[in-house]
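Lab notebook, bench 4. The sequencing result for the construct came back, and we need a structural model before the next group meeting so we can plan mutations. Quick request posted to the team channel:

Model the 3D structure of this chain.
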Amino acid sequence: MDTTSRTTATSRTTATVDAYLRADFPWYSLDEGWTGRRWLIPAGTSPDGAVDYGSIGHGDEPVRSYARPDAAESRRYAVVVTVARRPGRRLGDGTGTLDATSVSSAAWLAGAGLLTAAEHSPLARDLRQNWLEQQSALAWDLADDLQGDAWSSLTLPVNGTPQPFRYRESEYGWVLAGDAPGVHLGAYGRGVSAYGIGFTTVTDIAAYGE
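Done. Here's the predicted structure in C-alpha cell form:
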C-alpha cells in the first residue's frame, strides 16, 4: 500500500470512529469469550445527522470475492448491530418524519447485512441486484413478523444477564435480534455458532480504530 492509500485508509478509519464517538447510546460487541479480531463498519446516520446504528464485526471481514466461488465458505464472522432506541420524530427542517426504531429494525439491519455479505459468484451484476432486492424485501417481511414461525427463541447473555432473542437460520448464515439496555440489538454471522456467543457494552470504542 502506498503513502496515499495508507493516508486515505487512515482518514476513513478516523471518520468511522468519530461517528461512533458522537452516538448518544451505548455500543455492544461480543463479550470476552471472543478473542479474535474486531473491526468497525461505518455507522448509519439519519437525515438530521444523528447516529442511529452501527455494526462491530468479529473475525473475517465478509468481503465478497466473485473470482473465488468457495471464498464465503471459508470465512468465519459474527457482526453485532446496535440500534438506538428512537421514537418517531419530525426532521428539524420540516421535510418529513422518521419512524420509531424497534427490535424489527435491528432484525432488518442484521438480515440486510447478512445478505450483503453473502457470496453469489458468478451472478452478473444486474442479476445479483435483482436477487438482493428480492431477498431484502423478504428479509424485511421476516423482520416485521418476529413472532412468526420463521423465528425461534434463543437466550443469550448481555453483560452477563440472560436476555431473550429471536433467531433464524438460512443458507447464508444466521440472524438474531432482541433488546439490550438502552438499545435494540441485532447480530448475524456465518461459521460462528450463535448459541455460544454473548454480548457486552463496549467501554472504549476508540480502540477499534487503532
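Residues 3-209 form one domain.
Will bring this to the meeting.
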